[in-house]
Amino acid sequence: MTFFKRKNNERNDPVLHIGSSLTAVCTISAELEITARSLYWTLNGKRLARNTYKVLSPTESSVTLHQLNGSLQRSGDNLVCHRSNGEVLAGSCLYVGSPPEKPVNLTCWSRNTKDLSCRWSPGSQGETFINTKYILKYKLKWYGKEKDCEEYTGQLYICYVPRDLAIFTPYEVWVEASNQLGSATSDVITLDILDVVTTDPPPDVLVSRVGDLEDQLSVRWGSPPALKDYLFQAKYQIRYRVEESDEWKVIDDAGNQTSCRLAGLRAGTVYFVQVRCNPIGIYGSKKAGIWSDWSHSTAASTPGIDRSHIGSCDLKPSEHNSTLRKELKQFFGWMRKHSYGCTDVSIKLYDQWRVWLQKAQKTHDQVSKDKMHLHMRHISRQQIITVGTHDIGPVQKKKQKDAFCGFM
């Protein structure tokens, strides 16, 4: 008969603390007709140095390992005794690791006020090298027995409670960690389900240009659908970045509307935009709520600057007087918008502005002609009453202008 035994004669697979020492003994039966001197040892398939084992008797060989490191695999490290031809005579699994440390960073959230998800991190060391079991526990703070969370999502250190939760009353939540070397318990957190409600990311994010404005984009999105039946005030954040960069610029408070306008952007540039939501004050809760994940990126580009019609910006002495007209104030405003990079003024540029102004005036006049003039007359037995002329424009739904992001 062949087997391992430890110094204390235990024959189960050993579980050891990191840094421990181990002596194992391989005993062979006489009918094998081999001696202990011909045996050798391997750890995880690697042959151990001969100075780590010795012959105790013609039928016993021992191996001693010092300062053991954590197991390389959860199933344990394989320590095996072989005869000279490689045949396995005996073997055992070594489990070398650490007891768990107190779980930390326990946070919980609810997506519909009826469920609860919680996430945590293992202790500061993290890796225990052996199988460690984590159990999320919860109970009503003032009464009731503790319950175990049973639906683990497949992700490490996350558990989901889908139902049977109360609102308007606090819960205590904590995590217990245990393995063959010890156990540890996280700090207990107290929460009301209404105080930890979050949402899915805002849907239907749309980013579009604002006319021909080169430095602005309009952002619109939908309200969180999962909470449409709840009374709350949403708060939104927006972040955006240029296509060639991974650095996001965050607008911390985009207000509670579902649209706003980004300003101060670069012309002719592709921007990626994301939005997230924080439901505030569900059923009168005083807590700030929890931010949702960011929405998927939505891309749009600002209009480019058309420089094909921009003339020389050189100012000629003979043209000084011709630029001093009463429209100069309007002209300079137009030039700042349409002639980036120009630091001087020329007559050619001024003439281009005049063409633009005439086209704008022509468009305005055409719209005025298209208005209907209604003359109403009321005929009675004694008099004819002429009711004044009215300008009736097209009936349009009043559109709410986008507020600039970050400004209310």
TrEMBL record:
<keyword id="KW-0675">Receptor</keyword>
<dbReference type="GO" id="GO:0004896">
    <property type="term" value="F:cytokine receptor activity"/>
</dbReference>
<keyword id="KW-0393">Immunoglobulin domain</keyword>
<dbReference type="GO" id="GO:0097058">
    <property type="term" value="C:CRLF-CLCF1 complex"/>
</dbReference>
<comment type="similarity">
    <text>Belongs to the type I cytokine receptor family. Type 3 subfamily.</text>
</comment>
<dbReference type="Pfam" id="PF09067">
    <property type="entry name" value="EpoR_lig-bind"/>
</dbReference>
<keyword id="KW-0732">Signal</keyword>
<dbReference type="GO" id="GO:0019955">
    <property type="term" value="F:cytokine binding"/>
</dbReference>
<feature type="domain" description="Fibronectin type-III">
    <location>
        <begin position="102"/>
        <end position="196"/>
    </location>
</feature>
<feature type="domain" description="Fibronectin type-III">
    <location>
        <begin position="201"/>
        <end position="302"/>
    </location>
</feature>
<keyword id="KW-0325">Glycoprotein</keyword>
<dbReference type="GO" id="GO:0043235">
    <property type="term" value="C:receptor complex"/>
</dbReference>
<dbReference type="InterPro" id="IPR015152">
    <property type="entry name" value="Growth/epo_recpt_lig-bind"/>
</dbReference>
<dbReference type="InterPro" id="IPR036116">
    <property type="entry name" value="FN3_sf"/>
</dbReference>
<dbReference type="InterPro" id="IPR013783">
    <property type="entry name" value="Ig-like_fold"/>
</dbReference>
<dbReference type="InterPro" id="IPR050379">
    <property type="entry name" value="Type-I_Cytokine_Rcpt"/>
</dbReference>
<dbReference type="InterPro" id="IPR010457">
    <property type="entry name" value="IgC2-like_lig-bd"/>
</dbReference>
<keyword id="KW-0964">Secreted</keyword>
<dbReference type="InterPro" id="IPR036179">
    <property type="entry name" value="Ig-like_dom_sf"/>
</dbReference>
<dbReference type="Pfam" id="PF06328">
    <property type="entry name" value="Lep_receptor_Ig"/>
</dbReference>
<protein>
    <recommendedName>
        <fullName>Cytokine receptor-like factor 1</fullName>
    </recommendedName>
</protein>
<keyword id="KW-0677">Repeat</keyword>
<dbReference type="InterPro" id="IPR003961">
    <property type="entry name" value="FN3_dom"/>
</dbReference>
<keyword id="KW-0597">Phosphoprotein</keyword>
<keyword id="KW-1015">Disulfide bond</keyword>
<dbReference type="GO" id="GO:0043524">
    <property type="term" value="P:negative regulation of neuron apoptotic process"/>
</dbReference>
<dbReference type="GO" id="GO:0009897">
    <property type="term" value="C:external side of plasma membrane"/>
</dbReference>
